[in-house]
């Protein structure tokens, strides 16, 4: 069995949670490698709905090793809340979950700082307000606090140095919100006691498992277009969501990775600010939001809706090296007469199929659409690829030809059993 990375090929919410939950059946461990509780991964098991934020979606499989890698930023209050919520639903989280001692900690003042920076209209990103960005800022600035230090006796000393720095910022920017640094210290000392039994060197744990012949599924949190390097910068999250992040965010070497699967909706959505070339602001876009129930699973914000974007997918396939694509939410398009697909961009009067980098050029993109015949039939067929309506298969074929990436699987409903694997596909082989 192989070690695979599963990640979003668009701007997030592609259905990664459902796919990771489904695939995790075949793996010994599932590891999150970046992001924090800005992620919202929905898993539906029968009538029971779980929304996972920090904890990898695979945790719902009894006995699987769940890992939060070093590339993740952890708000201990959010983590403990999520653990309690899952325990109330009968999931034995504490025995299955291991947390990297090298992951970074989010403190309440990170949220305060984020609020200030989001308040500046000219720089608004439309973040999830979870303190994610400011915590990664501290990590990169080499003043952050890691889980290993949170659970160490030396924590108060390190914390006070960070607090001093934050107090200086609060004074400089005349932040009126009172930050009670000593109360936070007390709270976090308590959190540390609860978290300590789950903390270890997860890079060593994962590599030991690989040496024993066990298989790991790496779960990306946000989509590639939110990646700090490859996304629509600056309208991105602050971590490496793309495939390379799986290695830096867990300490497992690239030589140990056997395959990379991209998850993409049959259309596209985005939450927050930033360029969105194929966005549909008409009644049709509203219809997709309604039919696809496109509201943020963490913030409840309406997701912006648009059409499958070929240049974008080609770009994310290139930077991630996708072996195969999993197309989700095909059923949402079931009653359309025709389905628009963005096949190229026009920028400054020139047709292009590559992703521009500059903010101005990204915002200047005019999408060029082709319209593919709709199928006007339910794709919520059970079980077999061959049962899919012929015209729906033609739509998928069109996407496959335009993107140059195999479509190895299709999700045609939110349930565990609503997933079709394409017979003979590379994905089928990778899953063994
Ligand atoms: P993630 O962040 O990538 O895990 O995705 P989210 O959970 O935020 O959003 C995906 C939403 O679509 C969830 O509500 C899923 O239950 C739902 N979903 C996933 N796959 C399908 C599908 O094939 N069809 C439909 N109708 N819903 C789906
Ligand atoms: P999942 O895991 C969609 C977006 C925010 C904002 C930008 C930066 O469910 O796919 P942040 O709080 O991370 O600093 O916000 O990133 N964003 C997401 N959009 N799905 C997500 O996660 C997201 N996580 C962050 O809306 O535009
Ligand atoms: Mg989501």
Structure description:
This protein has 432 residues and is α/β, with parallel strands linked by helices. The protein has three domains: 4-101 and 199-259, Adenylosuccinate Synthetase, subunit A, domain 1 (Adenylosuccinate Synthetase, Chain A, domain 1), CATH 3.40.440; 104-195, Adenylosuccinate Synthetase, subunit A, domain 2 (Orthogonal Bundle); 263-430, Adenylosuccinate Synthetase, Chain A, domain 3. It contains 15 helices and 19 strands. The chain has helices at residues 16-23, 76-88, 93-96, 108-119, 132-140, 147-150, 155-172, 181-195, 202-211, 244-248, 283-291, 310-320, 359-364, 390-403, 426-430, and strands at 4-8, 29-32, 41-45, 48-52, 65-68, 73-74, 97-100, 104-105, 199-200, 216-223, 259-265, 268-270, 304-306, 324-328, 338-347, 350-352, 366-373, 407-411, 419-421. α4 (108-119) crosses α5. It is globular. The mean pLDDT is 95. It binds guanosine-5'-diphosphate (GDP), 6-O-phosphoryl inosine monophosphate (IMO) and magnesium ion (MG). The site of guanosine-5'-diphosphate has 21 residues, from α1 and β3.
The profile of the biggest β sheet is:
10 strands, mixed
Amount of beta strand: 15-25%
**Helical percentage:** 25-40%
Q: Structural class of the secondary structure composition?
A: alpha/beta
Our count of helices gives 15
């Amino acid at each position: 069995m192989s070690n695979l990375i599963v990640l979003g090929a668009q701007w997030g919410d592609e259905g990664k949670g459902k796919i990771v939950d489904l695939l995790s059946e075949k793996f010994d461990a599932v590891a999150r490698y970046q992001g924090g509780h800005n992620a919202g991964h929905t898993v539906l098991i029968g009538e029971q709905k779980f929304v996972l934020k920090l904890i990898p979606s695979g945790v719902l499989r009894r006995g699987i090793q769940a890992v939060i890698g070093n590339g993740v930023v952890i708000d201990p209050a959010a983590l403990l809340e999520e653990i309690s919520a899952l325990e109330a639903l009968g999931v034995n989280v504490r025995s299955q979950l291991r947390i990297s001692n090298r992951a970074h900690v989010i403190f309440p003042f990170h949220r305060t700082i984020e609020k200030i920076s989001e308040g500046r209209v000219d720089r608004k990103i439309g973040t999830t307000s979870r303190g994610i960005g400011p915590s990664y800022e501290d990590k990169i600035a080499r003043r952050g606090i890691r889980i290993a230090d949170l659970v160490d006796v030396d924590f108060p000393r390190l914390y006070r140095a960070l607090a001093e720095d934050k107090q200086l910022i609060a004074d400089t920017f005349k932040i009126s919100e009172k930050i009670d640094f000593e109360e936070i210290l007390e709270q976090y000392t308590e959190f540390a006691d609860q978290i300590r039994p789950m903390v270890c060197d997860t890079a060593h744990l994962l590599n030991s498992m690989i040496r024993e012949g066990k298989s790991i599924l790496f779960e990306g949190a946000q989509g590639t277009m939110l990646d700090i390097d490859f996304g629509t910068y600056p309208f991105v999250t602050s971590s490496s969501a793309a495939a390379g992040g799986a290695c830096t965010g867990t300490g497992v070497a690239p030589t140990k990775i056997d395959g990379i699967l991209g998850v993409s909706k049959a259309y596209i959505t985005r939450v927050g600010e930033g360029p969105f070339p194929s966005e549909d602001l008409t009644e049709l876009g509203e219809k997709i939001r309604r039919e696809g129930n496109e509201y943020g699973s963490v913030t409840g914000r309406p997701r912006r809706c648009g059409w499958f974007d070929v240049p974008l997918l080609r770009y994310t396939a290139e930077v991630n090296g996708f072996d195969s694509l999993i197309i989700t939410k095909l059923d949402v398009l079931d009653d359309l007469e025709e389905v628009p697909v963005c096949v190229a961009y026009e920028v400054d009067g020139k047709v292009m199929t590559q992703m521009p980098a500059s903010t101005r050029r990204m915002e200047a993109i005019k999408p060029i659409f082709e319209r593919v015949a709709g199928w006007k039939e339910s794709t919520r067929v059970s079980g077999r690829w061959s049962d899919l309506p012929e015209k729906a298969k033609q739509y998928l074929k069109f996407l496959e030809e335009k993107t140059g990436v195999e479509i190895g699987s299709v999700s045609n409903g939110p349930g565990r059993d609503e997933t079709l694997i394409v017979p003979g596909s590379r994905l089928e082989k990778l899953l063994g």
